[in-house]
Amino acid sequence: QVQLVESGGGLVQPGGSLRLSCVASGSIFRVNAMGWYRQGPEKQRELVATITSSNTTNYADSVKGRFTISRINAKNTVYLQMNSLKPEDTAVYYCHAKLLDRNYNALTAWGQGTLVTVSS
Q1: Largest pairwise CA distance in the chain
Q2: In the predicted model, what is the mean pLDDT of residues 11-22?
């Protein structure tokens, strides 16, 4: 079993900052990539940012220059530093991982989501 657990969501005013964390645990052999997706009210789930084990990053155009994704490979942990937050960033943020478990099964894992609300 593999589990992804997010933390760090909450209420913040426009222009403020939050840092999200996600830890992957369980029967993990190797995590190849991790990332963040989000789903706002009445919207489809969308990519926010991804990072590979070699630290190659990719960002949605809407968050470039404001969000930074990073990871600690040895701890199977990924972070999302969110600065200059806007009301349109309000969403449930989901952690995502592409990995091999200890039985060498290729898996795509999702966290339960953490709510970020940007409002004055």
Answers
A1: 48
A2: 98
